């Protein structure tokens, strides 16, 4: 699945490797393609529209889901966003009453809501090695609640996050991350990009640290995005949520 | 004379005049809002007084260019279109445009309504204006935060076409699988336009393609030709549904970079060789939509030919504006497909270019700027010797260009548009062109800035 510029996350990972002289091969795994859990260091799964999400759900319910779980249990890094995040949990009950089984990689359940959470988000991330603020844009009607088997990715500073109630955003299990933040997420949050790369490379290549890069532009973009979210809150008098014109839609 | 309507029209005219005087903009939406408050039936009442009825143009890209081209053709045919020319395409904008073009009793001073309509507004516009012709250009994902997903949008549009009268006509883009699938339940007659020239095809489907699956059965479509994005000649391998036969076609297309294209246009009645002064294959689609619409409205070859020849660029869609001894080439670039086509045009201009890229995230642009990661900026990256990023999301644009492969030393970030424009003009040599790629509200801002500098006529001044 690829919606909302999910491709930007892959571009960021590939570029940040290339700048460090690390060779990368990107393989697109489509519906029905077999997944060899030993072959990859890092997985990415993006968001999708309703129909795509249903097709991918069926595909993951077959062997692919089990292979993905096996890879993550073995220490592979993974980033899943929005629709992908939801399918890696235990289940997703959509607003229209459709039940989509997940692959239970994350101890998380999602239920569709009647309004969409749309807008800029800032999150405080406590992931060791990637501590600090994350910035992104959310657009989802699904409300996700985490069980004890995984940790939230961070605490919401501005925005709605997992469910708009408990102040959490995203989840982490081993080296796998699920989140509602797109925008794209990784270019403007280079520390999280490097966290994923380091954990991906540590597993099979024993890398302990990544050579630093000149992230001046990335940090400026990060700061600008953070300023924007803060300003939005102060000028819009507390009601800056945009409601979707249609209740049904992408989840 | 209806008093409510008269009061609404007077208020609309007054509000437009005031908002222009105060420099609040072209006065194209707010007056409509005031009018609807005073007389909620103002648009249907005024539209029903147009002797030749209404034409609606909808779709993601190309609404403004298509309706401006069609307006030029209609004028050649002696008609006087009432037109929401600056692209205010909600009911409010259409209402304001009608008031601007009418006398104080609400009688329009034109004979045919020509309105571009926001995709999501189409059902309301059909219900209120009862059009005799609806043209749909294409459907791309655009502003997901506003419109929801494409299938939902398509269903709404199907509903709108289903509400048309049996003597109405619908003109659809055959090359867009989603658009071509619309209107099956409609009682109106369906007509199609499309490109029939294999030389302009691309080798593969781009990732920015949105409608790659059959709308009937969900199977991946097979393409025998790709024009751009998901435009092309397609067929469903499972249910056999296929691209409809088009009546209005481009049999030959020769692209000439930013100078436009040479097109052999064919209709059921006649053929003609045309020079289209607008760059990009998407403008060939706009030409076909306009020419097809003109034919369905009873115009002939001569009106179409003269309309195209005398066409003045819609604001911000490929305008060339002289400023400070340099030339500003202004192109609206607001979603992945539009932007990719702009990049295709720029590639014809060589390297060492000075580019001004303005990215805004206001409501009308879409609050979410994720879409810039779906644009093939990797193909733009080798071209600029200097790229000035500006707009409310200047940093996002700069970062996108860095990750596309542009050397950061060639990048400059200027949050303030005026300063950005000055910087870009300063980087260009005398006589050189600055390529300004701007999202919707950034185009308006830049246009306003240029008119304040005396370089461009104000938006609402007719040309």
Q: How is this structure best described in words?
A:
The complex is a heterodimer of chains A (251) and B (463). Chain A is of the alpha/beta class and 251 residues long. Helices cover 33% and strands 25% of the residues of chain A. In chain A, the strands form 2 sheets. In chain A, strands 3, 4, 5, 6, 7 and 8 form a 6-stranded mixed sheet that branches. A 4-stranded mixed sheet of chain A has the order 1-2-10-9. In chain A, helix 1 packs across helix 5 (190-205). The longest helix of chain A is centred in the N-terminal third of the chain and has 24 residues, at 50-73. The relative contact order of chain A is 0.18. Mean pLDDT of chain A is 87; it is low at 235-251. Chain B has helices at residues 3-21, 30-38, 42-48, 63-76, 91-100, 122-129, 144-147, 150-162, 177-180, 281-296, 301-309, 336-347, 394-404, 417-427, 440-452; strands spanning 54-58, 81-83, 112-116, 133-136, 169-173, 189-195, 222-228, 231-235, 248-255, 261-266, 271-276, 317-323, 326-332, 353-358, 384-390, 411-413, 433-438. The longest helix of chain B is centred in the first third of the chain and has 19 residues, at 3-21. Helix content of chain B is 35%, strand content 21%. In chain B, strand 10 and strand 11 form a beta hairpin. Chain B has 15 helices and 17 strands. By secondary structure, chain B is α/β, with parallel strands linked by helices. Chains A and B meet through helix 1, helix 2, strand 5 and helix 6 of A and helix 7, helix 8 and helix 13 of B.
